[in-house]
Amino acid sequence: MRDLERLVGLLRELRGGSTLLGYRVAQPVPIFGEIRGLEDLPLSVSDVQGPGYYRLVDGYRFRHTYGSPKRYLLPPEHAILVVKPSYEVVEPEREGGGVILFGIKPCDLSAIEVLDRVLLGKHPVYTARRLGVQAVIVEECLEPGETCFCALMGYGPVASGGYDLAYARLDRDRLVFKPSSKLGWELVERLSLREAGEEVVEEYLDMVERAVDTMKRRLPSLEKATSAFKRLIGSVEFWKMISERCVGCANCNYVCPTCFCTEIVDRVESDHATRVATWAGCLSYTYGLVAGGHFRRELYMRYRHFVLHKFLFYPKQTGGLVGCVGCGRCITWCPLGVDLREALKRAVEVAGLEG
Amino acid sequence: MRVENPFIFERGLVVNVVEEAPGVKTYTVRLSGSYVASPGQFNMIYIYGLGEVPVSISSLPRRRGGYTYVDHTIRVVGAVTRAIVARVAPGSVVGVRGPYGRGWPLREAEGRDLVVVAGGIGLAPLRPVIERVAAEREAYGRVNILYGARTPEQLLYKRELEVYAKIPNAKLLLSVDSAGPGWPHHVGFVTDLIDHVDVDVEGAVAFICGPEVMMRVAVKKMLERGFKEDRVYVSLERRMRCGVGVCGTCQLGHYFVCRDGPVFSISELGEYFWVEGI
């Protein structure tokens, strides 16, 4: 842990003025927010996650919480324009100061890659904030949580690019580091780390393999799930069945690290109005609503969009990236425990693609 | 990388208002001279303190004295349109940004017969098509215009319809759901008029805009008559907030209707067009 402490110190030195953002201990549950020091990191807890279930126990396997880097990169509310009653337009000030993403997970890193393909260079707030990211430090996961299936999506449990330095906890006290950029190598050097011996590397790779196996055993392959969904696009019966318990609260959308939909509202004050973009979930009733009618009036249609967007539509919008990173947040934070993995399994069954 | 803020609009001066039908008005807005748009594209119109609505551009842009003028035909459906129709008058300023989206593929229609099918306010985004065809008549083959409204009173651009009827080598067919005595045209659905289309269906291009139910019936009938899926186009409505494919609310399958549409060929849409609520 001393190495992590020195890493935080070094990052502050090398990227002075940058704010560290990551998973931070808080009550009642950890949040994604500013890391002020090592004591903020959830280093001595493990999360226990299940459908509609989240709690912390003593341990050293913290995976994630409801928040993700999306909360910073595309905040729940962000001003996009300030307008005077005379229709003069003033651009709101952009926060885009330097930040360091510290201890984010491989699923988070993949989610950023997905968001980049949709928003980077197009969305002014996302772009400014994304370009303000000075360094990315990833904490890999060597033991998947119960709701985790990143390996199935090809997005985890280890980081494979787009970061500066990654580390994994072999156990409570031993860390292995994996640099991936000039900054990453510089950090490793300045930390004067010892090169990992063969047996340590082997131990690490074994744990990765076990983690991947654990996840892959739980679910059908992405390929199968995708072809099942393709066949079932028009099956009202199937979508009604798997969305039966959904209440349309859109929690899944808000905790999803790749959901990016927003609505725009006017907040009026005495001498100006601020046009504010707010997160909009496709499970909400208003998704698809227009003044003269509704294009997704029924809940099963909106649930179907949530699922098909992740598995069929994102790949077409991003040049091949699946929109689900397998973090399982939508399962954990669903008040009714509606389980996306059930959709995958049942789709494969109903489409007759088992075996 | 710095992104131009796509939400910035310009001040549009409303210079003329025409009442087309009850609750429907056409607003001519003066924009900067650099503004250009093609038929089928739309603008986002902003009303201070209320918000924005997507509105089809219902005329070809007209250049005059260093400015560009375009029409927007607006029907009262929600809060913003109600505010516009209630209180926007000549001399008013509105926020305008655009144009957005991909319009009608007029280039592809050149040299071919063209069928225009419009239901209700759906004539608005097709009006610039008809204006273009009338202005460059020799570039297109035979033209059929099929237009339906609820009642004769609800028909848009009433005087212009007489002009459409006189376009050479063209036919205008009208339909209303119900009419009093003296209505000389069809009573029923606009899609009934597809039986009377007299173009070379195999080679023709069709542009359709109206309520989605009407468009589904129209497309079905036209495909049955021999029109080709990749030459039948519809203009779709969805909940649009940004216009540039970042807010996500207008998604239809993998398309962002605001950016990839609103005009799509039936072959591009595939099952998205037929599966309800996709």
Question: How does this model look, in words?
Answer:
The complex is a heterodimer of chains A (355) and B (278). With 355 residues, chain A is of the alpha+beta class. Chain A has helices spanning 2-14, 70-73, 106-119, 124-131, 150-153, 182-190, 198-218, 222-232, 236-242, 251-255, 299-318, 329-332, 340-350, and strands spanning 19-24, 31-34, 45-50, 53-58, 77-83, 89-90, 99-104, 133-139, 165-169, 175-179, 262-268, 273-279, 289-290, 293-294. Chain A has a six-stranded mixed β-sheet with strand order 2-1-7-8-9-10, sandwiched between helices. A four-stranded antiparallel β-sheet of chain A has the order 6-5-12-11, with no helix packed on it. In chain A, strands 3-4 form a two-stranded antiparallel sheet. In chain A, helix 9 (236-242) crosses helix 11 (299-318). Chain B is an alpha/beta fold and 278 residues long. In chain B, 19% of the residues lie in helices and 33% in strands. Classes of the chains: A alpha+beta (355), B alpha/beta (278). At the A-B interface, strand 5, helix 4, strand 11, strand 12 and strand 13 of A face strand 4 and strand 7 of B.
